[in-house]
Design a protein that fits this description.
With 290 residues, the protein is mostly helical. The protein has three domains: 2-118, no CATH class; 124-211, no CATH class; 216-289, no CATH class. Helix content is 62%, strand content 7%. The protein has helices at residues 2-12, 18-32, 39-55, 75-89, 106-111, 121-124, 126-141, 147-160, 165-180, 185-194, 199-211, 216-228, 235-248, 256-262, 267-275, and strands spanning 62-67, 95-100, 279-282, 286-289. Helix 13 (235-248) crosses helix 14. The chain starts with a helix and ends with a strand. The model has no long low-confidence stretch (mean pLDDT 80).
Length: 290
Amino acid sequence: MLRSILYEILAQKESFFYHFQSEFRKYQALEREQWHGDLSKFHYKSLQNVLQSIGKRESRERLYLLIDAVDESSDQDRRDILRLLLELCDSKRCIFKVFVVSRPVVELQHLIRTSRAVIRMQDMNKTDIQNYVQTFLRPELKHELSEDDLHQAEKYILEHAQGVFLWVHLVGNELVRFVETGHSIREMFSFLEGLPKELDGLYQRMLTDMEHSSDVTVTKRMFQLVLFAHRPFTVFEFQHALSIADCTSTKLIPSDACFRDSLIKGLERRIIHCCRNLLEVKGFNGIFLF
């Protein structure tokens, strides 16, 4: 993360290379001496020194840093860099304005607990998510659940969404899939409450389910075709590619009859069933990894 920040600063303002020179020369000297210490630690500290040096710049430069997906960085890396960025924002020389986008993480909540300006996504888009939940769930479940039960399910999802549309979408799909198999109300709410509250947990659950599914062979084939294709498949092409792969994987001699018998009917439904929304069909444009 720190290397990316400095790269973008230097790309926007080449004159800032002055702040990189001393650290770069130190690195060159270590190379000449064939230093056998831990260079990764030196690199990390060196990058911190460069950014701190920019903050001490005499001219009243303005730097705007927009950093997305901070929650996806490693814990230690995130903690150190957030602390460094907040120190730079307090600089009396070079003016730093830092915009950080992240799902709720402990380190960030701790560091901004004082007077930092914070826009909480879950507060800003709560109404939008509520509309999305109602639009998505009600048509799917209105014949399966009573009005009170449906309202209770919507309320639970809203309370745990934390402003993340993707989590709402995935949880909604899991709930619809569960209800379609038959259920009691107690079982349904137990299932809903047992779903992971974070995206990472949801993805891991979906991958585990796919791994233990009876359709694991065709699921792997679908991902292989999409991941290694030169361009996105159309549904028609994907149907044929799966049929060809199925014919060649058997001991039967490939033939027109084998090809026709291996064509999957209702392919879009099969993609949803096997790939758990990690592959999606976008109109006639093709099949994409989610």
